[in-house]
Write a structure and sequence with these properties.
The complex is a heterotetramer of chains A (514), B (350), C (98) and D (291). Chain A has 16 helices and 27 strands. Chain A has 514 residues and is an alpha/beta fold. Chain A has two domains: 48-237, 3-Layer(aba) Sandwich (Glutaconate Coenzyme A-transferase), CATH 3.40.1080; 252-493, Glutaconate Coenzyme A-transferase. Chain B folds into two domains: 4-122, 3-Layer(aba) Sandwich (Aminopeptidase); 127-344, Rossmann fold (3-Layer(aba) Sandwich). Chain B has helices at residues 13-25, 71-85, 100-105, 127-140, 162-174, 192-202, 236-255, 269-282, 304-313, 316-322, 325-331, 337-344, and strands at 4-7, 36-42, 45-53, 56-62, 92-96, 109-113, 118-122, 150-155, 177-182, 209-213, 259-263, 288-292, 296-297, 300-301. Chain B has a seven-stranded mixed beta sheet with strand order 1-2-3-4-5-7-6, with helices on both faces. A five-stranded parallel beta sheet of chain B has the order 10-9-8-11-12, sandwiched between helices. Chain B has a two-stranded antiparallel ribbon with strand order 13-14. In chain B, a hairpin with a 2-residue loop joins strand 2 (36-42) and strand 3 (45-53). Chain C has helices spanning 38-55, 72-86; strands at 7-9, 17-22, 29-35, 61-67. Chain D folds into two domains: 7-235, TIM Barrel; 239-290. In chain D, the strands form two sheets. Chain D has an eight-stranded parallel barrel with strand order 1-2-3-4-5-6-7-8, surrounded by five helices. A two-stranded antiparallel sheet of chain D has the order 9-10. The radius of gyration of chain D is 20 Å and the shape is globular. Classes of the chains: A alpha/beta (514), B alpha/beta (350), C alpha+beta (98), D alpha/beta (291). Chains in contact: A-C, A-D, B-C, C-D. At the C-D interface, helix 2 of C face helix 1, helix 2 and helix 3 of D.
Amino acid sequence: MKNSLCREIPDNILEQLNKKPYSSPFREVPDFRAVGRKVVSVGPNDKKLLDSIDEAIDKTGLKDGMTISFHHHFRSGDRVVNDVIDRIAKKGIKNICLASSSLTDIHYPIVEHIKNGVITSITTSGLRGELAEAISRGVLETPVVFRSHGGRARAIESGEIRIDVAFLGVPSSDEYGNASGERGNSICGSLGYARVDSRYADRVVLITDCLMDFPNLPGSIKQVDVDYVVVVDSIGDASKIASGATRFTTNPKELLIAQKASKVIVNSSYFKEGFSFQTGSGGASLAVTRFLKKHMLEDGIKASFALGGITQPMVELHEEGLIEHLYDVQSFDLYSANSYNRNRKHHEIDASYYANLYTKGCIANKLDIVILSALEIDIDFNVNVITGSDGAIRGASGGHSDTAASAKLTVIVAPLMRGRIPTVVKSVQNIITPGETVDVLVTDRGIAVNPRRQDLIDRLNKAGVPTMLITELQCLVESFIGSPKQNEFEDEIVGIIEYRDGTILDVIRKIKEV
Amino acid sequence: MAFEVKDISYNIENEIESVTSLLEKHNLKLDSFVEKTIGVYEQDLLIATGSIAGNTLRSICIDEEYRGTSVINTLVSHLLNLLYDLSCTHFFIYTGVDAYRSFIKLGFHLVIKLESGIVLMENKANGIQDYLKEIKNITSNRETCEKPIIGSIVINGNPFTNGHRHLIDLAKEHCDLIYIFVVWEENSVFPNEVRYRLIEEGISDLNGIVLCKGENYIISSATFPTYFLKDVSESVQQHAILDLTIFRDIIAPYLGITKRFIGEERLCETTNIYNQTMIKLMEGSPITVTEIKRKESDNEIISASHVRRYIKENKWSEIKKVVPKTTYDFLNSKGAEPIIAKISNSSSRH
Amino acid sequence: MKIIQNGSAGTLESSDILIQVNPNKSKGINIHIDSVVKKQFGDEIRQLIIKTLQTLEVDCCEVSVIDKGALDFAIVSRLQSALFKGAGVDMNICWEEL
Amino acid sequence: MSQLRRTMLYVPGNNPGMLRDAYIYGADSLMFDLEDSIALNEKSTARFLVFNAIKDIDYGNKEIVVRINSLESGIGEEDIYAVVAAGVDVIRLPKTETAQDVLDVEAIIEKAEIKYNKVVGSTRMMAAMESPLGVMNAYSIATSTKRLLGIAIGAEDFVTNMYTSRSADGSELMVARSQILMAARAAKVYAIDTVYSDVDNEAGFRKEVALIKQLGFDGKSIINPRQVNIVHEIYTPSKKEVDKATRVIEASHEAEKKGLGVISLDGKMIDKPIVDRAERVVTLAKAAEEQ
C-alpha cells in the first residue's frame, strides 16, 4: 500500500515486520513497555578482563542466529567491527544479525561475511563504500533496515532490536568496565551511541587498547553494564577516529550557501536570546556557524545550547561564551573530544536523550533551529540523504529526520547541483525526512520556503530576503543539466527506511544492472 | 579549491627532496627511471606528485590529508595531458591497491592485481583482452591438430642469432604451436620493426609459429621498465613478478599456452633474475618452464650482445658464424648502416 | 574535417570532461563513454557528441571521453577543441559555424 | 556612469565549473580570462570553452568581459573573433602601452563584428595598463576610442617593471593609481583597480579596498568570489551619505520640474558633479540593499 507520502510499501513487508506505513510525524502513540536485558550477577571474586576477542565470544555464548551490535564513534578509523566479525566467522558462527549504530566505508570486509553466511541481516543508520554498493546490488537476502539515531534508540528500548552481545570499542577502560571516550590512545570523545547498547544488550564486551587503573572515572560506560573487558593492540587508526581539526570550508560556493542560510536564520523569529541550534557536519552546514557568530556578536545574542555532532567551531563558540551548553552525542574532532576536560557545560548525551521520540522529552524537542544537508530534495521538500542519484546506497539517516521533525526551523543547505547531478528534483529517489518537517531550502542559486510556512515567507520577504518557489529551483536546475533518465530497479527490496516512530517511510530497491 | 601544478626540476635539490620525502612518508619511492615529474602545490606546500616513464604513470602519491579531495583529479589530468601531448594514447598506471578505486573513477581499468598489493591499470577497457583477441584471430586461421600443445618464447632479438633459432628449433620439438612474442619497446639499438623482420625472415622455413608483437604486456615499459636499464635495479624482482603474473594469469590461459622456453642466462643479471623468478612463479600453474642451454660456437655461447660487440669490433667473420644468413645479409645492407654506426659509438647494454 | 592525429582536451576535475580523439583505423565513428552520470545522461552525451561531429563534418574518428559531470557547453567545447587539434587546425576557425 | 563596476570577478577561462557558477556570487561584472591564468598549451582549449560558455549559459544581464591575449602573442586575433562571435559585452586588453594598441584591437573587433553580423561598435573595450609606458600614456589610451568604457591598472607586471614588488601599504602604486584615475576621470571612463592575490588575508584586502575607494576608483578586479561581498560592503555608502544624496536628487528633480537652470539646496547652489555623485551614492546604496 501507499503511505501518506505516496511511497509504495509492499504489504508483505508491512506484514513481515508487523509495521504500519508512515502517516505523519507525531501521529503514532506508543503503547508498549520498554524491554529489559537479561540480569546477570558479577560477584566480588569474578574477573571481567579477558585475553582475547575469541575468549569473549566464547564466554558470552554467542551462537548462530544471534544479534550483535557496535557503535560508529570510531568512524573510518574503526578496527573493532572488522576484527570481531572476523573472529566470529573463524569460529564458524553463522546467521548473525548485525545491529550497528552505523557502518562506513572501512567496513567493506563485511561483504565477504555476507557471502559466506556469517552476516545475514543488518540494521544500521547508514552504509557507505563497497559494502553499500554490494547491498544495493542485492548481496544480502534480507533487506537492511535503516533507522535514524533516535529511531534506533527507540527500537532497542521497545525490543525490536534485541541485542544479544554488544561489542563496544572504547578509547580506555579499567578492568571492571568503566570506559571513557576522552582518555586513551585514540580518543573519540562522546560515546553517546554506545551507551544505549551498554544498557540494553544482554551481554556487553568492551574492547580497548588502553587499560587504565581502576576506577577509570569520570566515564561514559559504567561497570554495572559491562560483562567483559578485552585489551587489544589497537582499536583503530587514531587520526581517522578523530581528525585533528575541523576547518571551515574555503569553498566559495559553500560559503555563499552558508551566508544565505544565516540570513534566513537571522531574519526568522527564532534568532533571539537563548535560542538553540544544531548544524550538520557538511561544509556549508558547518560554515553557517561562522556567519551566525558574526550576527550573534553584532546583535548581542547568545545561544542557550547547541546540539548534535559537536565540532571545533561549536566548542570555540562555547568557550567564547556565545553558547551556554553543548549537548554532545558524537564528537567529530580532537578539539571537541578534548573539550570535556575543561568545559563543565559540555555534556555527553546518549542517542535516546538526543532524539528518541518515545521518551519523556528528548533534547531535540527543545531545538529551535537545525541546519541539515541533502543529497536530494524534491518539490515536496522530502529529503534524501541515503541514496545517490543512481539509486545506490551511499549515505546515512543519522539524526536527520529526528531533528527536522523536532526543531522549530529546519533549514536544508545544498548546492543546486553537483556536477551534472541535480539536488533539487521532482521526486527524491528515497525519503529519509518527510517534506512536512522541512521549512527552508537554501541553495547557491536561491532560497525556497515550504508553502506550509507562509509566516516565514512573509517575514523573509519583508526583511528583503528573496525567496522562490521550489518548483522554480527545480526548473532552473533542469535548464542547466537537462532531465536525467529515470533509474531502473528490480522488484527486489534491499533496504527498508523506518521513520523515527517505527512506521515505514520508504523502501530501497535493487539496482537494475545495465 | 585551486591547486597549483608545477614541473619538478631534477636539478633543484629542494624540489626533488620535497617529492621524495612526500613519497617516503607514504612508503613509496621515486622510480629512478621516470622521465618527468610534476608536483601539485597548495600555497607552497607539496601535496601530491606523479611521474611519467614511457607510457606509464608512476610514483603517484597524494598526501594523506588531501585524499578524497579533488587533488587527484588535478594531478592525473595533468599527467594524462602530458602523455597525450607526447602522442601517447594507450597508457598505464603502476600503483598500490589502496589507490585502485580512485583510479577506476578516473577512467582506468584493471590489468592485474598482485598479491603484494601492486596494481597495474590501463586507460583502455579490455585493453589486454583486445590485444589477445587479435593474436588469437591470427591463429584461428592456422591448421592445428585437435588438442595442440602450445608453447611460447619471448625474444628481444637485438639482432636475431643462431642462438635464438636454436631455442626455437628445440621448442618446436615439444610443441604443435609456438607463440613468439617480440619485445616491443624502442629501447634496443635495432628498432622494433627491424628486430621483428629479422626474426620473421629467420624462421620463414618453419610451420606452426605465430610471431606477435609483445606490445604493452610482455617485457614492456609498463610491465618491466627496469629491464631496459643499464644497471640492475632493485625493483627488477618486483617488475619481473608483475610481468610474469600477467603472462601466467591472463596471456597463457587465453591463448592456451602451457609451455614457456627460455635460454639459460649467464651474462645478464637482469634477465637471469627474470628467468629464476619465472621458474618460481610458474610452479603450481599449468605452465612448465624449460630452460635451454645456450648454443655455443667456438666454445663461446651465442648471444646478441656478442654480435653487437663483434659489430663494434668490426669482426665480420665472427658475426657470420653466429647469425642466420638473413640477419647477416641485413647487417651488410644499406638499411643497417645507421644501426651499425650507433653501435660503434655506444657502450649500452642494449 | 579530417582527423589526422591525436587530439585531447579537458581535465578530470569535477564538472569537466577529458576527451581524446584519434584517427579511426576502420571507417566511421567509434565513441567510448565513461561517465559519472552514464546511467542518467549517457545517451544524451552520446547524442551531443554525434551532433558536434556532424556539425564539423567529421565522419571518421575514435572519440573516448571520461566525463566528470560536465554540462553540455563543456562537453561541446572539449570535443571541438580536441577535434581541431586532431585536424591540426589552430587558427582562423569559422566561429559562426560552431 | 550609472552602471556599477565595483567588482570584476576573474574567472579562469579553462574551468567549466567556475564558468558555470561565476554568476552566483553577485559580482557586478564577470571577466573570463584567456590570458595569464591559462597555460600556453591550453590557450585554444580555453578559447573554445569561453566561446561556448558565453553562447550557452544564461548570465542574465550580467556584464561579460573577456580578457584576451595581446595581439603580439599571435593568438589575440583568434580570441577576438571567437568572443565577438559568441556575443561578448566587453573585450579587455592586457598590457596596453599606447593608444595605437587599442586601435589595432578595435580594428579587428570591427572586422569581427561585420563578419558575424553584430552591430558595429556594440562590443565595448577596456584597457589595462601594466607598464610604466602604459601608465604614462593613460590619458591618450583612455580617449583613444568611443568603445573604451574603462581603464584598469595591472599591478603585478607594473611593479616588476618598476624594479620593485607589492607591499602592504601600496606606496609603490600610489603614482600609477593616481595617474590612471586622473586619466579616467578626465576621459570620463571607469577606473578599475588591480587584483589582490592573497585571498586568505582579509584584513589586508579590506585595507586596500578602503584605500582605492578613497582614491576614487570605481571598483576592483578580484580573483576569488569570497572577495565580492567585502568590496561591496566597503563601497556601501553610510546612511548619512545616502540621506544627503537623496536630498540632492530631490532638489535636482525640483529644479527640473520648475524649469530652473540652477539647483539649490538649503539655500546653497549645487553643481552638476555633486548631483552626479549623489546619483552614484544612491545607486550604490540600492545595489547594497539587493545583495
